[in-house]
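Weekly puzzle thread! Below is a chain. First person to post its structure in token form gets bragging rights.
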Amino acid sequence: MTEDYDYKALLKRARDKLPKAISEHSRFQIPELDVLIEGKTTVLRNFSDIADAVNREQADILAYLLKELGTAGSSDGKRVIFKGKVSAEQIKDRINNYVSIYVLCSECERPDTKLVKDGRTLILECDACGAHRPVKVRKGRAGPEATAELEVGKTYELMIQDVGRKGDGMARKGDFIIYVPGTAKGSQVKVLIENISGTIAFGRVVS
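Winning reply:
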């Protein structure tokens, strides 16, 4: 009993001595998403608040979201506009993944971190506990497994699911979005892949 009491007393004393800033960060929360669907677009109206809360550049977060959601989009002041209808749950899930990979310390689970480059390796350093770790991005999006789903020079039969801003048809295969000029939504076409950049590909219709 005495040992248990001593442990709790020491733990309480240690917590009381924590700097106020660190104590406040223990209540870290991502702001509730303010999502609005407008026609064929989805607007995340408080994107800048989310970026401020996780202390990361808006451009970095947006690039991650577009890649993971498999859609196009752009920032508009404090907002982000996604092409197509995207649910709040989908966006929230991707933001939580981003925070887990690029923000939270794996040792103390606090967000008091920063990203630094060590050669070609991206390191997450924690200002709260001093821990550091290489950032490990989840496999399957832009790695060898994803690339294997699509190859330059090969032909695939695809369904055009949407039309981009420039009028090009958009198809999907696995993690890839494929732009095909001169195609209409709903058409089934044979597409020769001419170029791949990350999870974005470009092709043309062949007979």
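Puzzle host: Confirmed. Bonus trivia for everyone else. The radius of gyration is 22 Å.
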